[in-house]
Amino acid sequence: MKNFGPFQLYTATPNDIKYGELYTMEVELPILYSKRRIIRVYLPEGFDENKKYPVLFMADGQNIVDKFTSAFGAWDIDIHQHILISQGYPSFIVVGIDSPKDPVHRALEYSFPNIPIEVDNTGEFNKDGLEFESHLLYRYIALELLPMLKQYFPISDNKEDVGAGGSSMGGVFALSLLTSYPEVFGFGLVFSPGFFLYSKEKIMSYLDETVPKLSNHRLYFYCGNIGFESKFLDRTYSVYRYIKKCGFNEENIEMDIDVTCGHNEASWSKHFEDAIKFLFK
After folding, report:
1. Has residue 109 been placed in a domain?
2. Of 33, 32, 25, the residue nearest 42 (C-alpha)
3. pTM score of the predicted model
4. Any domain includes 26
5. Largest distance between two CA atoms of the chain
6. What is the dihedral of CA 252, 235, 75, 34, to 10 degrees?
7. Over the stretch 166-208, which tens digit does the pLDDT of each residue have?
8. What are residue 151's phi and psi, to 5 degrees?
9. I want to staple 188 with a disulfide (CB 3.0 to 4.6 A). Which of 155, 178, 215, 237 is the partner?
């Protein structure tokens, strides 16, 4: 059994990993809330230590490959990679950081830097002086976690091969990480992002400041339109169109809308392969 530095092979049973291997490490994040967290590193089937791999950082790491660590189902990235590899697409490493169990902490952690959540009927996001911590998480991933991972795993040194992905507030995480550190991250997988929780004007102002810094970056947006998911569609499409108007290279940005899908892991898993095909084309 091989370990990669402090990362140990995940052998818990039962598990639902069909292809490749998962390595985990518990850390204390330099953030404000829910500091103790598990980092999961998924290595694809046929992994070769002598080869450099692209890497995708995913929000809600507990959901990437194993339904037994997820409360709502997994993305089954191991299965999708298996299919993509069989079609000639490159394999890649996936890094998932488990999200905090408290939904308020999760929202604060995955939010746009310094943009308050304004659509909040419960007052949860503004009580008890809670502070937004997203900039702390993004800085940790870009400046501490990625360099540390490169010590133990053969991750590509090219910015174009480093991406961020997620769904719901994790979709906000993906776009925010890309725009916060465009010199580190080259692509984003932005699924069902919770943009409707923010002032449209403040989001557009943020994009005005950050999108011009993107050069040959790649973005893939996805949204469904069933039930609760319908709240996400209009604002997601508006952000997608606005980024294009900001001068983004049209060949590097895409949006997929599936009016038959809701707000759940099964829907996001269903569209994962299409996103990867576009981002890795």
Report:
1. yes
2. 25
3. 0.96
4. yes
5. 53
6. 110
7. 999 999 999 999 999 999 999 999 999 999 999 999 999 999 9
8. -70, -25
9. 178
